[in-house]
Structures are given as structure tokens and as C-alpha cells.
Amino acid sequence: MVELAGAAAPKPVRWGILSTARIARQRIVPALQKSPSALVTAVASRSSESARAFAEPFGIAKAYGSYDELFDDPEIDVIYNALPNHLHRETTLAALARGKHVLVEKPIGMNRDEAQEIKDAAGPLIVAEAFMIRHHPQWHAVAEIIRNGSIGPVRAVQTFFSFLNVDPANIRNRPETGGGAMLDIGCYAVASARFIFGAEPKRVLALIDRDPEMTTDRTDTIVADFGDGRQFSATLSTQSFRHQRVSIIGTLGRIEMPTPFSAPTDVESAFGLDLRGPGEPLETISLPPVDQYQLQVEAFSRAVAGTGPWPFGIDDAIANMAVLDALTRSESSGRWETP
């Protein structure tokens, strides 16, 4: 694991897993079990059978058949909330009411108002949105290149993020659960653009195509004006060939990120730096393999233990949701909208 700010917790922070979702099984629990500052104590599902089936392969001691049992467990410090989007607000508020810190899978809620309600209920507890990409060294390296002026002031960011999922039963394709491209992957595109520019957009515009049967947004093209000539554009799709990239164009050069969101954990990550122009090969910047999910849960555990910082708090989640809300409004109005 790469070096993180702060120090490992003096004793492991105890985590409870809310939901038996695939991301919890494939990413978060394995990451937590590699983290020196974390201990997976329990998992909860809507049925005891589902919880036990999830817990057994990982050796998790407690398997609860209701969410309230998890929230009421005095031996849990943090809840990881991997439930569908439409349940984030209700269950995060319930966990906070029981004195638990919460790491909520993105997006933090269905809209800005839900994110604000979560903030109002948090008090001294730490609650945050789980954007693992912010902990990957490739994004830190990109930020340093921008900071040191190698590519000059950034004028444009262009993003593409897509996958193919046409299963109507999948929660990503159900509008009542918060499915669709904007909330599922648009949140990454917006969060990364805000990170690159270090600013909030002044206005946004969206062109959205909806599936005629499922009614979820399946292909979105979005534009954001960050002021001073700084522009962001992205195409997002849940019904296209799997692809992702981020291009960052400055006055003196550009950065090309081929795996900005799903960086591999078992091989090197790499991005390209172009300071010479068309026809010339890009300089390849390579970084050792890391698990960005492990870096995320270790950083959160350190913050809960008071031994490390957590730089992206609930206010950042509120700002990101405000942009997504404005993009949704733009679909209806056909005009630029202000977050």
C-alpha cells in the first residue's frame, strides 16, 4: 500500500457492511480485510440467509437479517452503505442517529436536498461519499502536473465513460431506485472535473437520451462552464461499448488518462503526458499497482480514529449533487442551468 497521510489507527476501526451488493463483495470487504486500520465486524441484509451467505466466505463474525440490528450493534464504529441509491438517505440517517460514522457509496443520495439533510444530521460524525478514485496515486500525480504548470493553465477537460447493461431488472436500469447514467457514472465525471479545475461550474447543459421502455437516461452528453474560459464536456452511456478516458488539455500540453475510474489493481496504472504536440509519442507515466478501494477505506478508518485527515467531506458531496441536479433540470428546460 502506498504511503497515506497520517498514521495507522492504534486499534482497528470496526466496520459494518450494509448490503450484500457486488461492490461490497468484490471490492470493499477485500479492501477492508487488507487494511491495517480496519476490521470487518458484521454484515446486514434484508434476510439472515443472505447475510450469512455473504459473511461465511470472508469469516465475518456477525450476519444480521435486518438493517436496524447492524445500526444498533455497539461494537461497530463505521457503516459502509452499499444499498441502492434511493435508500442512501433513509439508511444513512438511521446509522447516524445511532452514532455511526458512514461511508456512503456514490452518489450520496438522489439529489442535493438529500445530501444536505444528511449533513444536517451528521453533527461530529464523519459521513462521506465513496469516490475511490480520489485516493489513487494516478490522480495525485495528475494533480501535481497541473499544479507545477507543466501543461499550462487547463482550458478543457473531456471525459467519456460507458458500459453496456440492458437488463431491465438491474437497479442501474430502474428509475425508482436512482438508476441511469447521470447518477451512476455522471457523478464520477463531474467530481473529477471539479477536482481538476479546483472550482465549481458556473452553469451546465445536458443532452439526454432515455431508454423508451426503462425510461432511465442511457446516453448523456453534458457541458459545464467553469468560468474564465474553462470548459468541461462528457459523454456517459449505460448502453454502449465499455470505455473510459479523461483528456485534460492545457495551453502547453495535455494529459490522457485511459483508465481514470477503473484502474487495475494487479498491474501498473499509466497515463500519457504530451508536451510536444501532434505526431509525437506521449511520455508514459507509470505507477505501481494499488487497490484504490483499500486506500479509501484505510484513509477513512484513520480519519475516524483521529490519526489521519479526510479531505473530501459532506460539503463536497453536496456540491457534486448540486451539479447533477442542475444537469437534470437542463434536460427539462433545454437551457443552461446554474448549480
Using only C-alpha atoms, the radius of gyration works out to 20 Å
Structural class: alpha/beta
User: Quick one: CATH class of the largest domain?
Assistant: Alpha Beta
Kindly report the average pLDDT value. 97
CATH homologous superfamily annotation of the largest domain: Dihydrodipicolinate Reductase, domain 2
- Give the terminus-to-terminus CA distance: 37 Å
SS summary, helix count? 9
**What does the overall shape look like?**
globular
Biggest sheet character: 8 strands, mixed
Q: Report the CATH topology name of the largest domain.
A: Dihydrodipicolinate Reductase, domain 2
Number of structural units classed as domains: 2
> How would you spell out the order of helices and strands?
EHEHEHEHEHEHEHEEEEEEEHH
Uncertain runs: none
Fraction in helix: 25-40%
Strand order of the biggest β-sheet: 8-9-10-7-11-12-13-14
CATH architecture of the largest domain: 2-Layer Sandwich
How many DSSP E strands? 14
Sheet-strand content, in percent, reads 25-35%
Characterization of the model:
This protein has 339 residues and is of the alpha/beta class. It has two domains: 13-130, Rossmann fold (3-Layer(aba) Sandwich), CATH 3.40.50.720; 137-289 and 321-333, Dihydrodipicolinate Reductase, domain 2 (2-Layer Sandwich), CATH 3.30.360. It has nine helices and 14 strands. It has helices at 22-34, 48-58, 67-72, 88-97, 112-122, 137-147, 181-197, 292-305, 314-333, and strands spanning 13-18, 38-44, 62-64, 78-81, 101-105, 127-130, 154-164, 203-210, 217-225, 231-237, 239-250, 254-257, 269-274, 283-287. The strands form two sheets. It has an eight-stranded mixed sheet with strand order 8-9-10-7-11-12-13-14, covered by helices on one side. The longest helix is centred in the C-terminal third of the chain and has 20 residues, at 314-333. It starts with 12 loop residues before the first strand and ends in a 6-residue tail after the last helix.
